[in-house]
Specification:
This protein has one domain. It is built from two helices and two strands, in the order αβαβ. α2 links the parallel β1 and β2.
């Protein structure tokens, strides 16, 4: 399974779980961060999918980063 297919398949569950935890713990925002060796296909395809999910609201945010952005963390 390629990264785009995997991310698209996992996105609804990740968002639902993250939003449930955000709401249960009284947090203000949910930032879902995906990391990929080649993030460009995800950057192009996932924001529209993310915004169409019923769990999405104006306090959920999707970030797609290249793996190199995690160097030193």
């Amino acid at each position: 399974m390629d990264g785009l297919t995997q991310a698209g398949a996992g996105l609804p569950a990740w968002l639902a779980a993250g939003r449930a935890e955000r709401d249960a713990t009284g947090r203000n925002r949910l930032r879902l961060v995906l990391v990929a060796d080649d993030p460009e296909p995800l950057i192009q395809a996932l924001p529209a999918t993310f915004a169409d999910l019923p769990e999405w609201d104006d306090r959920t945010h999707l970030h797609v980063l290249p793996r190199s952005a995690l160097a030193g963390l």
